[in-house]
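Structure ticket #2291
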Amino acid sequence: MSLKTLGVLAAVWSVGLAVALQGAGPQAAAAASAPTFSKDVAPIFYKHCTSCHRPGEIAPMSLLTYKDARPWVKSIAAQVSKGTMPPWHADPAHGDFLNERRLTELEKQTIVKWVSAGAPEGNAGELPPAPAYTPGWFMGEPDAVFAMQEDYPVPAEGTIAYQYFEVPTDLTEDKWIQAMEVRAGNPAVVHHVIVYARPPAPPAPAQPGAAPPAPPATAAPRPAPTFVFAEGMEIPAGQTGGPKLPPEKQPPLGPNDRPAPRRLGSSIGGFAPGQFVREYQPGTALRLPAGSTLVFQMHYTANGKEATTDRTRVGVQFASQKPGHEVRVSSLVNGSLHIPAGASEHRVDAEMTLGRDVTIWSLLPHTHMRGIRWHYEATYPDGRTETILSVPNYDFNWQTDYVFKTPLKLPKGTKVHATAWYNNSASNKSNPDPTKDVWWGDQTWEEMMFTGLTYSLDAVPTTTAGGQQK
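Resolution: structure written out below.
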C-alpha cells in the first residue's frame, strides 16, 4: 500500500472518529455526570434509609451496599418519586420536626437521575463509611433491658384481648429515661405495646391502736388539673381505658389470658407500626421511680400459625443527671365516636383546655384502618388560632410521634382541638367491612380516635411581697 493510500485512509478514519465522538458526546457527557451509588446515593441511603433497610430489621431489603440495592432500583425510584419512602406524612406547611424523614428535592432528584442513568456503582473509593449500628437496637446500646418473664403462647385463631405482663425493674433509685425502645419479640403477631411504670404501693394504713400520723402543718392547695377534657368523649365501658363492665357482663378469663393488674401506673411509651424509638431532647427526660414495676400492655393479632410465642423487651438509656424538664405522657381521645357504614369522609373531634402553662414536645395521632387524615389546632386565650400539626395522608402502617423542633409553649386557657377523618366506605381498600357501623374498640376492625402527647409543666411564677411576679 502506498503512502498516499495510507494517508487517505488515515484521513477517512479521523473524520469517522470525530463524527462518532460528536454523536456520542451528549450521551458520554450524561453518563459521566450521572450520580453514582458510591459518591451520591449511598450518603442519602445512610442518612435516611438504612436504620430500617439493613439485615435483621423490618424493611424487606437492605440498602447498605451497592449489591444489596441494585436489584431494587426501579422500585426505589418509584417509591421516592411518589413520596411513599421514606414514610413521612406531616404537611410541611405546619411545623418543623426533629424526627422528620422527608427527603429534600435535591435528594429525590439524585436518586431518580441515578436510576435513569442505569444505576452506576461509581468509584468504590468514594464510598463513605457505612453507619455503625448496635445489633438488635435502633437507638444504640441500652443501659438496661426489661423483658417479659415468659414466652407467651399467642393463640393461632380468634380475637385476642389485651394481655398484661408485669416486669420488675429492681431499681434502687429514681432513674431518668433519655431514650426508650420497644422490641417486639415476634413482630408478626404484635400489633402494639404500651408500657406503664407502676411505682411501689403506698405504705399500708396504720394498725388499730397505733398513733395516727401527724397532719401536715399547712395543707397545700390542690393544683389545678393540667388538662380539662370536653364532655361526651368518654371511652365505652368494657374497653381499655373505660369503666369496667358489671361482673355478670365481663367475659370469662381463659387459661391463656393475662388480665390487667389493679394498678397500671403512668404510661411511659410504647410501640406501634412505624414507631419504635423515643429519644428525648437534651435537658429533658422521663422519670422512672425507684422500685417501679413495668406493665406491658400487649395487643396481639392471631396469624393462623400454631406454636407462636412472643417475649417482648424494652431497652432504655438513662440520662446522666436529673433533667431541667420532666417529660410526662398523656392522651386526648374521643371514645364516643360512631362512624356510619359507607361514610367516606366522617369527621370526629376531640378537645381539651389547658389548666396550667404547658410545653408540648410531641403529638402522636392514632386511628385504626379507616383513619385517613388528622388536623390539630391551638386556640390561645387571646382568641388567636394556629395549626400546630396537619397529617393529610395518615397511614395506619406508619404511625409517627411528631417531635417538634421548637416545643410548643401553650399558656393556661389554651384549647387544643384535634380532628380526624375516616373512610368507612368500599373505596378504602383497608376497610375490614364497609357495610357495618363502627364504634370505639380495642381491636383493629373497630376504631379509635387517640392522640398520645408528651408534655412538661412550666414553672409556676412566684409572687413577691409587693405583688410582682418573678
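Closing remark: Residues 336 and 448 are 9 Å apart (CA to CA).
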